[in-house]
Amino acid sequence: MAAALEIKNLAVVYQGVIQALSNLSLVVPPGSIVALLGANGAGKTTTLKAISGFLPLQDGRITSGSITIGGEDTSNLAPHVIVRRGIFHVREGRHVFAEMTVEENLIAATFAQRKSRPRKAAFDEVYGYFPILAERRAQQAGYLSGGEQQMLAIGRALVADPQMILLDEPSLGLAPLIVRDIFQIVERINREKKVSILLVEQNAVIALKFASYGYVIENGCTVLEGSAAALSANQDIQKFYLGVDAHAG
Amino acid sequence: MNPIIVFAEYSAVGIAAGGIYALIALGTVVIFKSSQTFNFAMGEMMMLSAYFFYTAAVIFDFGLLPGFILALVGSIAVALLIERFALRPMLGRPFIAIVMVTFGIGSIIRGLVSMVWGPTDLQSPAILARTPVMIGSLFIPGKTARAFAVAVVIVGGLIAFLRYSRAGIALRAAAADQITAYSMGIDVRRVIAFTWVIAAITGCISGVLMANVNSLTPNLGLVALNVLSVIILGGMNSIGGVLVAGLIIGWLESVTGFLLGTEFREITPYVLALLILLVRPTGLFGTAEIERI
Questions:
Q1: B184 touching A (Cβ < 8 Å)
Q2: CA atoms lying within 13 Å on the CB side of residue A38
Q3: Which of A19, B231, B255, B276 has the fewest CB atoms lying closer than 10 Å?
Q4: Which CATH number characterizes residue A132's domain?
Q5: Which of B176, B180, B183 has the CB atom closest to A99's CB atom?
Q6: What pLDDT band is residue A70 in, cutting at 50, 70 and 90?
């Protein structure tokens, strides 16, 4: 079976001079959860932007390497075309449309559907995973709490019925309990709907708990990869990303 | 005659005239919201539409309704051409450069219209009845009152469209956050082109009405400069704001004309715009982060 997403030796430059990625490779098999770990500025978000076609909108460019989705090269496609191929990017910082209601936010996401499906079925599915959104459906999204906004951001992805969700920092600024809830729902979505997830997280502990495989990037290069268990056991990972002091005691 | 009645009458006439300002301003604001482009050619687009209507309805004698539909189609085609070939290549350029492009397009249209149709006044066909409308004991000229009614219907329809239709939601999404709109499969460039279609529609209707209330000249579009003050007053990015502001400016023009003499009428919108820029640059209902012209 072809990988859902495969990136080979990707290099990305912003504004013609700033090298954000120099040699990044990764594979996301269908139905898996893959974590992308790394420090601030390592190139995690740039990787997601390259996949979803946002780079040209921010004066960035792929200078070498390839991105294939289901075996097809997508590196030259426009973002609204890529999402309709089934790759939905849930951006860092949630970016709900604050002045629109919860339901209008979901309607906006219907433009991402590969094939249209009844609005009610799509929304009921979202409200099934996130019952709180059903209660808030007529409220302006700007008045939702941070956790609810993150749920809405993921809910918009569900409306599109994607093959893969690119999930950027879903834990950002949220209380640990809410983060746990959201990750459990994401895992359910992954399991029940066979949606693969490429997860970017600062919080490596929770990322490796839910992911099956992970990549570590530094300065725009893949430097380490392995199963979540192997990465969790790796001493460098423990020291730099998991906050475990290997020499403690 | 009772001066209070006269004042009320001038007020009513002014508000009625303001309806068209609101209609023109709406077309301008919809474009601004989606692409941060201030379209200085709005007045000329409107004037060109009125000439299209005159040509189809009078010169070719197709009749009023077919003439209007042809004018509408022509206006939309021109708007799409402007968007595609003059403004889309400017994407990402500085605000002032884009504004100057629209200014240039306005001058080109005005020059071309003078060349093709001549600089003199033409008599636009009567589409609005002249019989005056009485509200209680207030007397409102028939054309002004009917033009206002048309403006209200069109503005109401557009607002309902933006609020409830799926395309309206796409438009608001693109206006709020282009990258996120793209991430949901919304083709933002198409949305921007679509806002030019909306501007063409409001421009065409207001142009035809305006030519009917006044007369048809290549300077018809200068009225859109008054609309600049409407937009400054209402707030560049607030649809509700410019609707209210349109009525306020129309009213103010009319009552200053009555109280101080017609020579003050012309300068009122600009004086008000200047005051607003000094006191509250975001306008009555606008939000900050707007680059001023």
A1: yes
A2: 25
A3: A19
A4: 3.40.50.300
A5: B176
A6: confident
